[in-house]
Task: structure prediction
Amino acid sequence: MNSINTQLNGLLLCAKYAFMPNKLQYCGGDRNSELFNFGIQNQSDPFLGTLLKEFETLYPYLTLIASSNGIKDPFDQKVVEAYWIGNELLEKTDMKKLYWHFVDALKLKNKMTPQQFTDLVGQIPPQAKPHHSFHVFNIWLRTGNLPIAHTIQTVNDCRIGWGKITKILPNELEIETPVIEEKLEKLLLSKPQKKTVIYKMLNESFIKNPQINDLISYHWNFACDKITESQAINLQRYTLANLTQ
Result:
């Protein structure tokens, strides 16, 4: 696959995961209509990159993963997949750059007290990976990016979830999916349980022709994409890796 195709596919993949938090006005500019249209048409163009660069948390993580792997384009499909789902690029990411990523790109020193920032960087283990779940479990909870109290529900909403379709409803999918639970002041991943997620808006969907037993990913309770078994394994692997730090 040539570099143009990997960029266009990466941009489209990124748009599908970025759409719902943008619609909820949690991150990025007011771009949810454009992101939604790209997603339902399953088409991309370079303009989409301009929209996605407005996401002040997302884009710095993509640049960190890309630069650590010698990849010029932060929207390369493998880079985007590494951040949202997880793949081998996370294993090659230079975590020595993570401190400056927090300071320069995410500007966390401006969002935390000096003690909070010191505690954060002092507790990052060598095995930490710049996966979306890392930000949810370690950064987002501390910086208060949402104007609401953080709960187990919002942790589950913000992370990328995965599950198997068990029932197809008019606008929702019933799935079996593990969720984050709190026990003895620790966050744990549960055994699969039933949950419904939205998959249609305005009678349109990112997931075309869903079938029973299909594996899907979801973000903020919205179905993003069909995924493979290996992608589901990676999602679980990196979610657990960042959850247990």
Notes: The chain has two domains: 3-143, 153-243. Residues 141-147 have pLDDT under 50 and may be disordered. DSSP finds ten helices and seven strands in the chain.
